[in-house]
């Protein structure tokens, strides 16, 4: 696995942690507004633990990036424990997510949290997504494949300069290059 792939996985993990924090914040705010202070306290304690964990993951990501290796030796894995890989071309390709992601970000004023963006992308792409996109992953049994593919598309879009690389974790932000690219794409549709 290449250094870039490992870095991308760290980014995905951090985004998932950010989603968990956002969900926890909403649940905590609801508990506070309804006067359920015991539940709010429990959620706050959980939030502190998750934030601490997030910091550790960020530190591990920095440590990994400091290693600066091009690739690691391939390792043999047991196919049964890894799961069967989906055949190439069955799921919707990452490139198909570019326009919907950029459209969603424009609708949100240029940036938004990952959950809002991905939910909007799902609505935009509903007519395009197929049965394989809705299948779950072995590594994320409660997450449809298309949500994971959207996150990989985001990672590629950052590399291509269409999305900001310096936005806070969990926030996706369109760049001027991304706006220009979207305008060109819409002109060809």
3D structure, described in words:
The structure is a single chain. The protein is 63% helix and 3% strand. Helix 4 crosses helix 6. The longest helix is centred in the first third of the chain and has 31 residues, at 3-33. It has helices at residues 3-33, 37-67, 79-82, 95-107, 114-125, 145-159, 176-188, and strands at 111-113, 171-173. By secondary structure, it is mainly alpha-helical. It has a two-stranded antiparallel ribbon with strand order 1-2. It has two domains: 3-72; 89-188, Winged helix-like DNA-binding domain superfamily/Winged helix DNA-binding domain (Arc Repressor Mutant, subunit A), CATH 1.10.10.
CATH class of the largest domain: Mainly Alpha
Radius of gyration: 18 Å
- Overall pLDDT confidence: 84
Broad structural category: mainly alpha
- What's the arrangement of strands in the largest beta sheet? 1-2
The number of distinct helices, counting runs of at least 4 residues, comes to: 7
- In CATH terms, what is the architecture of the largest domain? Orthogonal Bundle
């Amino acid at each position: 696995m290449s250094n870039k792939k490992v870095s991308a996985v760290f980014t995905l993990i951090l985004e998932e942690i950010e989603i968990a924090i956002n969900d926890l914040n909403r649940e905590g705010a609801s508990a506070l507004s309804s006067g359920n202070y015991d539940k709010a306290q429990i959620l706050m304690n959980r939030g502190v633990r998750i934030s601490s964990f997030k910091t550790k993951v960020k530190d591990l990501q920095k440590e990994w990036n400091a290693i600066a290796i091009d690739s690691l030796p391939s390792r043999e894995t047991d196919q049964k424990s890894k799961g069967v890989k989906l055949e190439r071309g069955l799921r919707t390709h990452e490139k198909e997510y570019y326009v919907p992601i950029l459209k969603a970000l424009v609708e949100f004023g240029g940036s938004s949290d990952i959950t809002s963006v991905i939910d909007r992308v799902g609505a935009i792409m509903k007519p395009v997504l197929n049965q394989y996109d809705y299948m779950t992953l072995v590594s994320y049994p409660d997450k449809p494949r298309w949500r994971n593919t959207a996150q990989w598309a985001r990672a590629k879009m950052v590399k291509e300069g269409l999305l900001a690389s310096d936005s806070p974790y969990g926030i996706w932000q369109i760049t001027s290059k991304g706006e220009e690219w979207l305008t060109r794409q819409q002109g060809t549709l």
